[in-house]
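Before drawing any conclusions, I looked closely at one protein, both as residues and as discrete backbone shape codes, quoted below without any editing:
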Amino acid sequence: MTDALLSAAAITPDSVVLDLAAGSGDPAFTIAARLTAGSVIALDRSHASIALAEVRAGQLGLESKIRCVQADAQAIPLARCSVNRVTCRCGIMFFPDTRLVLSEVLRVLKPGGRVAFLAWGPFEQPFFDATVGVVLRFAKGAEMPNGAREMFRFAPAGSLGTELNDAGFRKVREELRTLPRIWSGSPEELWAYQQEISTLCHPLFNSIPKDLQPSVDAQVSTALAHFRNGSVLSVPVNVIIAVGERAP
């Protein structure tokens, strides 16, 4: 997923890149490792995530290439025309005011600069069917939380591209891609990780009756095990990738 996003962004070794909703540092670390003369600004509104990203950058020896910034993407604290590329992996769906974020992105991009967004495709896909879908099928009365539904707001074809066009980007291109989500570990570990990081789904996970939890865990592990490829899991995921440019 990261490789597809960065390929769409067409990052060059000397790019100055702004990574929105950077979390604890990925894909900003991957970007930094590919740069020679460029740099990355990892921006996230979470103080805890940015603090962890700073620590990890030091551990990876990337602190000279990464600047971690706690800020809201709706008010990016950067000067006009200051970055060459903007990336965002699985974050654009959660910004309360997408148009405001896009106007900020357009403001900080240099003329000819490019933005690349990666968002989840439809809910009906192998990864979610093998995880959240199992919970919805086995836990009586379970429903997807409203906040979690936002993950799929740009699944309808053309919706994210339309947002970019309306914001004033040019050469807008959107495509639905099926990519492998690689996990170096067991199905049980992937399921535990997914439950931990999917904070918007916590109400759903917490609704699983205690006596039913072992059965749900076993069903998810069995479903994910179908995607075992040697020592890793390679689960197909459907994502939307959209790119646009600021006019020269």
User: Anything to note?
Assistant: The longest helix spans residues 47-59. The mean pLDDT is 96. Strands lie at 16-20, 39-44, 66-70, 83-89, 109-120, 170-183, 228-229, 232-245.
